[in-house]
Every structure is written in C-alpha cells, then in structure tokens.
Amino acid sequence: MRALVVLGATLAVACAGVLFPFILRGKDLLWGKTEDSHIIRILEESRLVVDNAIYNTMKRNLNKREIISPSQLLSFSKLPEPTSRAVSRAAEIMETSVQVMRRRGYLNLKQAQPPTDALSEDLLNMIANMSGCLPHMLPPKCPRTCLADRYRLITGACNNRDHPRWGASNTALARWLPPAYEDGISEPRGWNPHFLYNGFPLPSVREVTRQVIQVSNEAVTEDDQYSDLLTAWGQYIDHDIAFTPQSTSRAAFRGGADCQLTCESRSPCFPIEIITMRDYVPRILGPEAFGRLVGPYEGYDPAVDPTVSNVFSTAAFRFGHATVHPLVRRLDARFQEHPALPRLPLHDAFFRPWRLLREGGLDPVVRGLLARPAKLQVQDQLMNQELTERLFVLANSGTLDLASLNLQRGRDHGLPGYNEWREFCGLPRLETRADLNTAIANRSIADRIMDLYKHPDNIDVWLGGLAENFLPKARTGPLFACIIGKQMKALRDGDRFWWENSHVFTEAQRRELARHSLSRVICDNTGLTRVPAEAFQVGTFPQDFESCEDIPGMDLAVWREALPQDSTCGSPEGVENGDFVLCEESGKRVLVFSCRHGFELQGQEQITCTPQGWDFQPPVCKDINECEDMMDPPCHLSARCKNTKGSFQCECTDPYVLGEDGRTCVDSGRLPKASLVSLALGALLVGCLAGLAWMAICRWARSDAKSSLPVVDGGGKVASPVQEMRTSQHSVPAQGEEQGGDQTERQDTCTLSNAG
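^ thats the sequence. predicted structure below, dont judge the formating
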C-alpha cells in the first residue's frame, strides 16, 4: 500500500512539471498577457526605478547641504526648471525601459542598429506615451496674433511655422551623425574595458588629460591679437545657445538617456546676434573659412533646421576652454595693475560674487578683459591646472577636471570619433601616425595622442579638433571651423526673426542696428569712459582707446510707432491678472491679451477696432487649478497639492520636507514635531513624578526621624534605644489598662510627628 502511495505522488509531480508551463500559458492567454502587457509592466517598473533614484538623489542632497562637493555645486548650477525636469525624467524612463527590454530579449538588435528600429510603431507610441515623452514631442500651440508675427517667443518655439519645435527649448540636440554607443543604446565609448576599438581599449579621460592636455599655470602663451573679452563672449553665448541640464537623478541606475536635452534660449536682444555673427565668429573661423562656411545673408529659409547639434554643443564650441587664462586681471582707471586688487587665481574667483561687491565692483574686471590678452590655444599648452586640478575648489571636498569632463561628456552623448567627423566635413581621414602629424604639427603631442589611443579612429572628437593646426587668421582648426560654421549658418538662416530679414525691421532700423557695437554696450552699462573701438582687439591704453562720446550708438527714434487714430474704440480697462499690448495690423488698431503665469485666457486673445467698436469683448484671466491635472500632477504622490492664486504649493507631512524639485517630499531625518512635543511632555511628567516622589521621601524621612527621638523616663533620665528595646521586650503588659495606655502613647507620638 505504501509503495502505491509513493508511486502516485511521483506521477503527480511529474505530470505537474509537464503541464505547469501549459497552464501558465493558458493563463496568459486567458488574461491577455500579450507583448503589450509585458511592455506596460516594464514601463511601470522603469518608472519606479527612475523615481526612486530621483528621490534618493534629493534625499542625499538634503542631507549634504552643509557639505557641498564640486560635483554637487556643478549639479546645482545646472538644476533644470520644472518643464526641463519633466522632459529629462521622461527621457530617463524611456531609456531605462529600452535597456530592460533588451536584457529580457524583446529587442533583437543587429549591429549598429538603433533600438527604435526593432520596435513596431504601435509599441514606440505606447512607450513614448507611458514614459511621458509624447506630450513633449507633439507640436506646441502657436499663437496667431500680430505680435507673434513680430516677436519671437522666449522659448524659441513657433519660429518655424511648419516645424514649431525646431530651435525651441526642451527639444533634443540634433544628430548630424548616428550616435556611437557600445550597447547601441546609451553605454558611452570606453564604458566596458573589454570593448576594443581597432584592437585596443580606449584610454581613460583622466589619463588623456594628464598626458596630453594639462600644463602648469605658468605655461601660458598670450594672444597678441585678441583680448580676454573674446573668451568671455564665447562663454556667454555658448551658455545662451546650448545648455544641457543636469540629469534629474545622479543615483545608481543606468542614466544618460540617448535624447539629451537642450535649454536653448534664443535671446531677443538683436545686438547680441550682430556682435556674435559680425564680430566674434569671423575671428574664430578666420575670414576665408567664414566666407566659405557661413557667407553673406541671403534671407530666411524655412527648410533650414536651426536646432543646436550635439557635436557643436558638446565638443566644437568648447574649444574656448583652451583659451581661458589662469588669472583674473583687475585694472585701475588708467588700465594699470590695481594696487589694491591683486591678480586672482581663477579658483579664487569661482562662485565668489561677493568679490564684486567688496573689491571694486565690475569695472576693474571689465578693464582687465579689455586691456589684457587672452590665452593663446597652443598645442602643447591646451589647458592650465586652474581648470584641470582646481575647478570649483571648495574647502576639503575635492575638485573637478574640466578637460576630463569635456572628454567624458562627448562619450556620454554618443559622439562618434575624430575621423568620423573629419569625413563628415569633407576632410581626409587620418590613418597613420604620419597622417596625424599633418593635422597636428607638434610631433610630441601627436605622438602622445597616438601612444594613448593607438589609432586615429579612436581619438575623441573634442581632443582631435582642439589640437589641430589653426586655419589662417583663425583660432580654430579645419574640423571645428566646419562644425561651428555649419551651426552658425543654420542659426542665422533658419531664424524667421533674424535682424537682417527684410520682414523684421525697416531699412532705417537695420541701419541703426548695424551701427551698434560691444564697445557701445560697455559704455552704456559700466562706469568706463574710454574703450577700444574694437572690443575684441587687444590694445594699449591710452593710444588704442577712444572716448565713449565718440563710440556711435543707435537712434531709437526710428522705432517710434504712430498707431492709427480712431474715435470709435477707446482703451479697455486693465485685465485682472493679465495685460494687453497695442498692435497694428492692416492699418487697424489691435489689442493682444495675455495672462500672467498660473492663469488662462478665457475669450478672444486678439480683438480689433472696427467702425462699430471692438469686435469682441475683452477676455478674462482665470486661475488654473494645477492640482486638478491628473495626467501631469504638479506634486509628487508623496506630497499634498494645494492650489493658490496663480500657482500651487506642494505640502509635506512632518517630518518630511520638500526636496530640491519643490514637489517631492523627502525624509528630513529628524523626529516629527509631534514626537518632540510628546517627548517634552513625557520629560515634564517624569520630572513632576520625580518631584512628588522626592517630597514623599523627604516627608517619610522626617516622620521617621521624629519617631526615633530619645525616650525620657519618669525620673527625667534619658533611656537609650537599647534600654527602651529591652524594656519593651521584657515588659509584658496586662490586658486592659496597660494595653490601652500603650495605644494612647502611640497616638500621642503620631500627633507629635504630625505636628513636627
């Protein structure tokens, strides 16, 4: 019988092992466990991974606010605003999802095949929608008013009517070549030590800095043509044209999404356009390359995409780091070394705005930029130690290396190698050490580069372009001149509001704009009274300087407008929580209304004056209840959303506090206030009980002391306690009288004790 039971159990286990997969498969079919449901689950898991990483990053930053490292300081300085943060989070969710799909076998990628090519269009749309990317990929709503035809939006959107996201903020950097990632998705070149390029692993970026790029602060060759202001201007417009925000998370998960973001903000200040394209770019590219790569303006071309490219933002336009002088020179009113303001090492100027307030203001610094030469970019003096060893120095918390950051940034952004970009620009590929010597004249530097990279194909594009021989009368080599020239031409020709476009300004206005200069800007905005006529040209005071009275400026009278006069339409009263602007369209008076942030327009955005009066009633501005947005809630699930007039507040329950994003509650690490109150009340109660106990003990001790007083016998003698004890032991009172007397005695003693 026992044998039959064992045999039956064995058959049951075997059958279960055979049938269980079919049971599971049937369950999947029954409940709709299709490929879509697996993708949805992966997206939900990825969202949790990213959100947890973001939460942990904010929690760590909260705990380390008093001890800031250089990397944290760099991160805080690039902290994205809410819209950029939402786009960055969506991109990281999407990238993490693709990584998981690949690990689980949902992507069968061929070599060099983009991951998106392995997914159906329906799945791609699902991923884009669930990750949060889709709303930021759809065309924005563009205003159709007379103002929209005259002024650009601050976001850069709607510049191109057919492609409203071209050149706008919070859009991906343009790819001029396919990205180069070791896993085809996001792993940068050099990530895997076993991954070989032409038979060799890539060198570490820090080793490249030490062996090729870094020199001492004393090894500086000064530029004999251009002032330090040329470097400062390049830094200024670089951060205006292309700015990539810090990742929303720096915690441990596979970050660095393929679609890196740019916070491009095209400035509406037209003199900046003029100074950059007329005065700055020709000096960087050289006159011959500028004429060939950029050329004269021929009008707006709606087919040109002005979006900033990845290679321009990440590599080419960072050539200027090799022209940064290790010293900040501050000069007196006669442009001489200031006796009270010595030269500052660069690391003593980083994040120290108080120096401007306490040490002479802005004018001494501007004089130094005008009258002192820039550092010349020399092949064996690329970057000084102020940038490679002392970037963002903080007390006892380490430093950063700008050269290594630049090299690693190019790898993180998936930039192909040096030779790929030379071929893109129509330049010959470099295959041997001798070939490299033709592009880099300094043989020692060329040999060091080859010793590290082993093959020209392996060289990082930023280093290769930086080390090339200059073009004639230029400050860049042929590769970076090609990339910068191509980008600048696209920014100009693809801009509907470019100042030279005949539909933007009148002939008289363009003539006045052409008279403007950086020297005039300095005269109008500083205390300087003498400046060089060419601000980028290094000069000697006083012979190369002119009085500000002789520097021409713009006559703003040519912008004065005469609105049509009419008697039928008056000016409406002010709009609560909004405003309106007068405009002229087809000879008619027009009002364009707008609401302040946090309010939405209800009614007509634009009204026109007709012979019968305004064609519509003025609109009103209604408060937006952001807390009702379920698709994109303003606060994290950990916080409570409270609507306010024109805005909202994310509130946390104690002991949680808002993180750096202003929408997520993170643990402060302290006890709740209610717990502190409870502890205080508990301590007070314990103190009261201790006091009462002490009082009771003292009273008891006092009572005991009274009861222990010496006994006086009838003869007036004092009986000792021993005698009293003996008396009590050997005296046996009789019942009745003696016993009652003893009770009376004890009663008298208690009365004495109480009286005492």
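The chain has a mean pLDDT of 82.
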